[in-house]
Amino acid sequence: VFQRDVPVPVWGWANPGEAITLRMDGQLLKTKADKAGKWQLRLAPHAAGGPFDMELKGDNSLVLHDILFGEVWLCGGQSNMQWTMRDSGIKPDSLLDNISDVRLFSVAFDLDYLPKKDVKLGWWQTASVETVSGFSATAYTFGRYLHQQLKVPIGLISSNLGATSIETWMSAGALKPFPQFGEVLGKM
Q1: Once rounded to an integer, what is the mean pLDDT over residues 157-180?
Q2: According to the 3-state scheme, what is the secondary structure of the chain?
Q3: CA atoms of 36 and 9, how far apart (whole Å)
Q4: Which burial class, exposed, middle or buried, applies to 159 when counting CB atoms under 10 A from its CB (0-12, 13-18, 19+)?
Q5: Most distant pair of Cα atoms in the chain: their distance
Q6: Residue 107 to residues 28, 32, 97, 118, 125: CA-CA distances in angstroms?
Q7: Over pLDDT 90: what percentage of the chain?
């Protein structure tokens, strides 16, 4: 799921200088990878809807299917956000009415005070009894409510880990007044 009504960055890695073409829903974008092999394009703002296919071509080709535009929410935190539907005792099938447009992404556990360029592991899944049962109960019930109210696709990104220190969830600006984070902040 991509955020609706705003420019959407799409990026990747290729060989230095490699020509990249992106086609999606009538948009054709082109760029070249920089000296480090990085490239980035921006899709024009798009209303809620889908599904769409995205075709990426360079030295290789890749087609991504079933892309939606809607609301994307990052659901991050400690144990209260990590608590799954399975753990909640709520039967997922009682919450699965008309949610084919709710998509779930679980970020693999990782911990660092420095921003990451990529996640270790993760994938988008359509909400179903199987995928919802291991997903954050707080995030899913929030996303389901949004879907019912807004009538647009919803993307939920679950990034959480119980018993983590609160500092791992704070921005560099929020940590700046604390001298014990000076060395870490100096690397940012």
Answers
A1: 83
A2: CEECCCCEEEEEECCCCCEEEEEECCEEEEEECCCCCEEEEEECCCCCEEEEEEEEECCCEEEEEEEEEEEEEEEEECHHHHCEHHHHCCCHHHHCCCCCCEEEEECCCCCCCCCCCCCCCCCEEECCHHHHHCCEHHHHHHHHHHHHHHCCCEEEEEEECCCCCHHHHCCHHHHCCCHHHHHHHHCC
A3: 18
A4: buried
A5: 53
A6: 30, 29, 25, 10, 12
A7: 55
pTM for this prediction? 0.84
Per-residue pLDDT of 102-132, as tens digits, reads 999 998 877 666 677 777 777 899 998 888 8
Count of beta carbons in the 10 Å neighbourhood of residue 147:
22
Both tokens of residue 25? 């829903």
| Lookup result for tokens 């889908």 | 50
Distance CA 107, CA 39 (A): 23
